[in-house]
């Protein structure tokens, strides 16, 4: 059974500091977001895409179908969690509250099909989960003046990626609860943790980078060619 994927693309790319939001920067001959959507739509387990755009987005190319799958749009909000919530609420009526949905950053164009498959297969057996990878570097806790105060244990520390997969109704409730309490969450899994769930961490390739700075663009171009 196939799932819908919400793609938050309403950010402004402040850290990139380009003339346009980073999702529209050219990458290997087309806008960055086109690579992300292409990989998602090509996946056999994905039924449709719900792309969340900024309120005054004039660069969205107006894609309506991709690989024969519907591509819908919604308007996002100030925080990523607002954008995801808007996307979840704009899913077509065929998507039920009990259905799993995926959420994948527009800014992660290098996601691999086999990792999406792994996430769907493994997290379907649970209340949901996310792609990530165990931390590889030694982790320091910094104090004032960037002095290292302590070395944190590295075991049981993971970096969180997307896609993340949860049941639509449970994720809407979890994101709604954090927004009512005025709390910021950096990903869907954090909202689910606060709601008492224990999302499954599914190890994925490290090359599923979130393009954040100009250097990441060059790396993404290399990775895209390598993992096509
Ligand atoms: N995003 C969104 N709505 C927001 C903020 C972010 O849909 N209000 C999306 C971004 O477009 C991106 C993903 O969430 O695809 C991850 O966010 P991030 O990498 O932080 O992108 P930006 O917020 O655009 O970048 P920055 O934080 O540097 O401004
Ligand atoms: Mg941001």
TrEMBL record:
Keywords carried by this UniProt record: Isoprene biosynthesis, Nucleotidyltransferase, Transferase
Q: Name one Pfam family in it.
A: IspD
Q: Name one GO molecular function term.
A: 2-C-methyl-D-erythritol 4-phosphate cytidylyltransferase activity
Coiled-coil regions listed in the entry: none
Keyword Isomerase among UniProt keywords: no
Q: Where is this site: Positions MEP for the nucleophilic attack?
A: 154, 210
Q: Report the domain of life of the source organism.
A: Bacteria
Q: E.C. number, please?
A: 2.7.7.60
The site feature described as Transition state stabilizer is recorded at: 15, 22
Catalytic activity annotated for this protein?
2-C-methyl-D-erythritol 4-phosphate + CTP + H(+) = 4-CDP-2-C-methyl-D-erythritol + diphosphate
Q: In which pathway does it act?
A: Isoprenoid biosynthesis; isopentenyl diphosphate biosynthesis via DXP pathway; isopentenyl diphosphate from 1-deoxy-D-xylulose 5-phosphate: step 2/6
SUPFAM superfamilies per record: Nucleotide-diphospho-sugar transferases
InterPro entries in the record: IspD (IPR001228), IspD/TarI (IPR034683), IspD/TarI_cytidylyltransf_bact (IPR050088), ISPD_synthase_CS (IPR018294), Nucleotide-diphossugar_trans (IPR029044)
- Signal peptide extent: none
Q: What job does this protein perform?
A: Catalyzes the formation of 4-diphosphocytidyl-2-C-methyl-D-erythritol from CTP and 2-C-methyl-D-erythritol 4-phosphate (MEP).
Q: Which NCBIfam families match?
A: ispD
The family assignment reads:
Belongs to the IspD/TarI cytidylyltransferase family. IspD subfamily.
Q: What is this protein called?
A: 2-C-methyl-D-erythritol 4-phosphate cytidylyltransferase
* Species whose genome carries this gene: Rhodanobacter hydrolyticus
Q: What is the lineage of its organism?
A: Bacteria, Pseudomonadati, Pseudomonadota, Gammaproteobacteria, Lysobacterales
UniProt gene name: ispD
